[in-house]
Specification:
With 78 residues, the protein is α+β, with helices and mostly antiparallel strands. The protein contains two helices and three strands, in the order E-E-E-H-H.
Length: 78
């Protein structure tokens, strides 16, 4: 989708929508903000949607998230 083609139907009618809310939409911060933490890519032809974290918010991940490898290890009991 980020290359302008829907991965589901092949359409090139892709729209970008910001995820603006009164509170952080991914809880990357506990302060209310009108700044979008993420955005959606939506296919106009079939409705398929992908969501991406905005590049200027990536630095917040280590403080609030768990690396996938660690989560998988924990789920496996290790």
């Amino acid at each position: 989708m980020r290359r302008g083609i829907c991965v589901k139907c092949g359409s090139d009618r892709i729209y970008v929508l910001g995820a603006y809310t009164a509170e952080p939409d991914l809880r990357l911060s506990w302060r209310p903000t009108l700044k979008a933490d993420s955005h959606f890519l939506v296919c106009h032809a079939c409705g398929y949607v992908e969501r991406y974290l905005n590049a200027d918010r990536l630095h917040l991940l280590p403080g609030i998230g768990t690396p996938l490898s660690e989560a998988q290890r924990q789920a496996a009991g290790g």
